[in-house]
């Protein structure tokens, strides 16, 4: 790609946390946060032979990626507020706005490429633009920013509210080739702090195991093992859950129990135990929402129908009718600390998207509120086997030499001579010993260390020339080592 620096707006996205105004106050009182955003330097790139331009922001790698629409850079800020925060209001005001004309169109974002044969993948990866968007006489995106709010666990395993702000400091009017560029912006967030927390100060249990009663005896050694290591563990059978909790179906009853376990016991981890009752004959899906009859422990299915614009074959009706998702059981809360049902419109279809005859379920939270996994065992014997393996692993691994070793399967392609434009021509060079000096550089004229290779030219012998593809030594700054070396 040909790279031309066209504009520098000095500055960075300031800070990893927001400065607070009035953060000290009584619970339930309005709170305010304010942050100043500065746009990093901007660069243009001519993309291959398509004639499109790609605009980038230094130090960022996030873009608008709606297929076929202009791929413009964006700055993403995720701010953590207290769990249960309400009346959240986000405002972003850009400033220092300038305009600039570009002669070439901004590159459209590519659509997803299906995992299929080479010819179909090649066709799907062709750059296709949304003609309606590229005919717009108003700026794209329509607004300077978008926001989303969710509730989940942060990196410290704390329940928080996430406010995600996607800021587009560059907007593009395709019909006129005009860029609007904001050098700065003021981000303001106001909210009402929660008056109380639903979570206990001290955990009664750390881990709850959910399984059918038929697995209870086989799981007892695991429960005793976890408790002996200080991980307070308890088993709750599906039979008890169905009798004690309400819900539209069995998966929702289990989810309501998990919510209760978090708020009553302070549970941090949930282990679901149970897969299909028979991997050959069991029916995995009873209806659009669940698999229950054929499962030891039910599964929740989504209804995210994907009827792709570029199908994998000639069938125009090809689609993915949704998949099972245990994220459903981990995503307990949504904004405001309310229960996340995954059926926000209440039409009885969970996680619906593009399902004919049904409204899309927009705004599903998707943030996990508890660490959750499943042992998809299909029999009591499988439960016993897995339990033994877990206990053996956790009791014999520490300090073992084998634990420090691993076997992986990987591959690496070498950028051949055509791609690297490497030429090896010794016609004008006499026989003798020579030294080749190899050095990398970047467009800012920063140079890396010099690699030295000694060679012998003897035209009476066959050429022996090899390359070392040492991209494992790549670093994220200059100077760095050359990626391809003559060895």
Textual characterization of the structure:
The chain is an alpha+beta fold and 487 residues long. The protein folds into 3 domains: 182 residues, Sandwich (Immunoglobulin-like), CATH 2.60.40.3800; 198 residues, 3-Layer(aba) Sandwich (Rossmann fold), CATH 3.40.50; 70 residues, no CATH class. Helices cover 15% and strands 30% of the residues. The strands form 9 sheets. Strands 2, 3, 7, 10 and 11 form a 5-stranded antiparallel β-sheet that branches. Helix 3 runs parallel beside helix 7. The protein is globular, with a radius of gyration of 29 Å. The N terminus is likely disordered.
What labels describe this entry?
487 residues, alpha+beta, Immunoglobulin-like, Rossmann fold, five-stranded antiparallel sheet, four-stranded parallel sheet, 26 strands, globular
CATH third-level topology of the largest domain:
Rossmann fold
Q: Estimate the global geometry from the Cα principal axes.
A: globular
CATH level 1 class label of the largest domain = Alpha Beta
Q: How many structural units, i.e. domains?
A: 3
Number of helices: 8
Helix percentage: 10-25%
Q: How would you sum up the major sheet?
A: 5 strands, antiparallel
């Amino acid at each position: 790609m040909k790279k031309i620096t066209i504009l520098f707006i000095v500055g960075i996205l300031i800070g990893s946390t927001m400065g607070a105004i009035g953060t000290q106050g009584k619970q339930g009182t309005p709170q305010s946060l304010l942050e100043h955003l500065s746009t990093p330097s901007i660069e243009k790139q001519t993309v291959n032979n398509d004639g499109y331009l790609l605009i980038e922001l230094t130090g960022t790698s996030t873009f608008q990626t709606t297929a076929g629409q202009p791929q413009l850079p964006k700055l993403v800020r995720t701010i953590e507020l207290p769990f249960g925060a309400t009346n959240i209001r986000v405002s972003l005001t850009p400033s220092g706005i300038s305009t600039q004309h570009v002669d070439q169109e901004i590159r459209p974002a590519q659509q997803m490429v299906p995992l299929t044969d080479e010819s179909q993948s090649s066709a799907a990866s062709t750059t296709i633009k949304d003609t309606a968007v590229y005919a717009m006489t108003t700026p794209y995106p329509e607004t300077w920013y978008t926001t989303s709010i969710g509730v989940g666990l942060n990196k410290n395993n704390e329940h928080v509210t996430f406010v995600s702000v996607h800021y587009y400091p560059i907007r593009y009017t395709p019909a006129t080739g005009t860029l609007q560029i904001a050098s700065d912006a003021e981000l303001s967030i106001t909210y009402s702090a929660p008056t109380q927390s639903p979570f206990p100060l001290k955990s009664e249990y750390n881990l709850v195991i959910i399984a059918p009663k038929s697995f209870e005896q086989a799981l007892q050694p695991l429960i005793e093992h976890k408790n002996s290591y200080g991980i307070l563990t308890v088993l709750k059978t599906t039979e008890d859950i169905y009798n004690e909790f309400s819900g539209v179906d069995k998966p929702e009853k289990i989810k309501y129990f998990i919510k209760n376990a978090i708020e009553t016991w302070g549970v941090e981890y949930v282990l679901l135990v149970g897969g299909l009752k028979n991997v050959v004959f069991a029916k995995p899906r009873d209806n659009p929402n669940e698999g229950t009859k054929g499962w030891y422990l039910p599964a929740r299915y989504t209804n995210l129908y994907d009827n792709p614009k570029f199908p994998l074959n000639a069938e125009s009706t090809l689609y993915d009718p949704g998949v099972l998702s245990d994220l459903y059981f981990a995503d307990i809360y949504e904004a405001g600390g309310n229960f996340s049902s995954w059926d926000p419109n209440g039409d009885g279809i969970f996680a619906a998207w593009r399902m004919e005859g049904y409204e899309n379920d927009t705004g599903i939270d998707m943030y996990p509120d508890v660490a959750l996994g499943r042992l998809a065992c299909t029999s009591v014997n499988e439960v016993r086997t897995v339990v033994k393996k877990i206990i053996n692993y956790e009791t014999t691994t520490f300090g073992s030499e084998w634990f420090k070793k691993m076997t992986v399967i990987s591959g690496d392609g070498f950028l051949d001579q055509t791609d690297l434009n490497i030429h090896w021509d010794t016609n004008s060079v006499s026989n003798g010993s020579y030294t080749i000096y190899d050095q990398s550089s970047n467009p800012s004229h920063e140079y890396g260390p010099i690699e030295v290779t000694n060679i012998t030219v003897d035209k009476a012998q066959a050429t022996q020339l090899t390359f070392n593809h040492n991209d494992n030594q790549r670093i994220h700054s200059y100077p760095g080592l050359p990626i391809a070396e003559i060895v």
